[in-house]
Amino acid sequence: MQPPAIPGAAGLPLVGSALHYARGPLGFLEDTARRGDLVAMRFAQHRAWLVSDPAHVEQVLVKSAGSFMKDVFLRDLKRLLGEGLLTSEGAFWKRQRRLIQPAFHRDKIAGYGRTMVDHTVRMLDGWRDGTTIDLHSAMMSLTADIVTRALFGTDVDDMHEVADCLDVLMTRLADPLFTIFPTLGKLPLPSNRRFEAVAQRLDAIVRGFIAKRRAMGHPAQGDDLLAMLLNARDEDGSQMDDQTVRDEVLVLFLAGHETTALALSWTFYLLSENPDAARRLHAELDAVLGGRAPTLDDMPKLEFTGHVVRESMRLYPPAWALGRESTEAFDLGGHRFEKGSWMWMIPWTIHRDPRWYNEPLRFMPQRWEGDFQKSIPKFAYLPFGGGPRVCIGNQFAMMESVLLLATIAQRFALTTAPGQRIVPEPSVTLRFKHGLRMALTQRAGATA
Question: How far apart are CA 446 and CA 448, in angstroms?
């Protein structure tokens, strides 16, 4: 019996869905997902398929993972990130994952909990009741400080320039025209020249950190991630060269900085829009912490706090899209696909599917109580991806998000400032198109 024909996305002659996507990527993908679990798309000469059935997602990411590589958009990131864990493939990726994995064992990342809270408390000491701040900027600065300490074991002034460079580069990568027409990135456009200049400056800064640490002798001293990268040895005794270390430092900085900052920013926006959830969060923090700063030991008791983070990443997943390109012909859903097929899996749409989530557009942290996550398909919730390439720092990110949320929300209630448009911008990550300004209200009993 032949499977039903694959429906097609909205499109036009010659350009296919390119203009529809460029006008609004998220709206286009939402419309496309409503057409079926497997929908054909075309962007000029390139053919792609939107994969929305969690079973099909699992097939691509896990069961047939060996038949796929990262998509052309992430491969384009190699211009910036080189052959880091995010972009590398095959045997080299497996080697790097094996070398870096020990740095993210549970016992290792537990040691970063105190650093996360201490940096957050230091930031809060500068906040004042009744003022309005750019929250996203504040979260980006905070997570940059934390990941810098984790990477280098100390505060490094130049890392704020690294963050600024990455912000410029990510803004350029947010342009949907460059996403659907990657060849534009090779033209001598002013934006491309600026991209290259900033990328070269970023490269020089990070290589400078590595050179300074190597000059201090071998093995590298310290318990930070850079020392781990420099000292890691493969089974044959080989180590990472400076280029490989540079690539992994950039990936770890970007992943530990931007995505967590966005997760927290979207979380505080959602809490501001849902006062009942905010009140329940504050009640839990008051009961568990009693006015003191949270510790790692408190996390099992901060159940609702964890649910808030999970629900925020359901509605606004920082890693909002996953893509793979087939390296050989393969079967999916009863259909045969050729080598070079683009398969798109979009957490933004999967997380909003009413088959898995009751009232999917509502912010309902309580939905995660009990065994809810076990009741939905495994790949109906994938804020960190899935399969062998699931985010290596997922436990670090969850710990950081919960501890930072608890530390901030215990002392301040945050309210979205009036008169601003909150618009998600789907770049490599899910950013704020117009920023996020929030008013601060110091909570009763909290000390400044």
Answer: 7
* CATH number, residue 84: 1.10.630.10
Residue with tokens 């957050």: 120
The pair of structure tokens assigned to 202 is: 């970023």
Rg over CA atoms, the chain: 22
Q: How far apart are CA 81 and CA 73, in angstroms?
A: 12
Task: State both tokens at 394.
Answer: 């997922």
For the chain, the domain total comes to 1
pLDDT score, position 448: 44
The tokens for 186 are: 């090779």
Round to whole Å and give the CA distance between 36 and 21. Answer: 18
Residue 8 falls within a domain, yes or no?
Answer: no
Q: Which two structure tokens, joined as six digits, stand for 320?
A: 């909002």
**Mean pLDDT in consecutive groups of 10 residues from the start of the chain, 448 residues:** 87 90 93 97 90 96 90 71 80 86 78 91 96 95 87 69 75 66 75 83 83 80 81 83 87 83 97 98 97 94 98 97 94 93 96 98 97 96 89 88 98 96 91 94 74
Placement of tokens 């804020």 in the chain: 383
The parent domain of residue 290 ranges over 18-442
For residue 251, what are the contacts with CB-CB under 8 A and spacing of at least 6? 81, 84, 85, 86, 87
DSSP string over 313-339: HHHS-SS--EEEEESS-EEETTEEE-T
In 3D space, the residue among 393, 382, 380, 409 whose CA is nearest the CA of residue 308 turns out to be 409
Asked whether residue 4 is domain-assigned, the answer is: no
Burial of 283 (0-12, 13-18, 19+ CB in 10 A): exposed
Q: What gap in Å lies between CA 345 and CA 335, rounded to an integer?
A: 17
The rounded distance, in Å, linking the Cα atoms of 93 and 70 is: 11
Chain mean position to CA 313: 9
Looking at residue 53, its amino acid is D
Look up residue 275 and give its two tokens. Answer: 């006062």
Provide the β-strand partners of residue 49: 40, 343
Q: How far is CA 428 from CA 167, 174, 175, 343, in A?
A: 11, 7, 10, 16
Is residue 235 in a domain? yes
Which residue from 120, 122, 100, 101 is spatially nearest to 112, judged by alpha carbons? 120
| Contact assessment for residue 120 and residue 264, using Cβ atoms and an 8 Å cutoff | no
Whether 426 and 401 have beta carbons less than 8 Å apart is answered as no
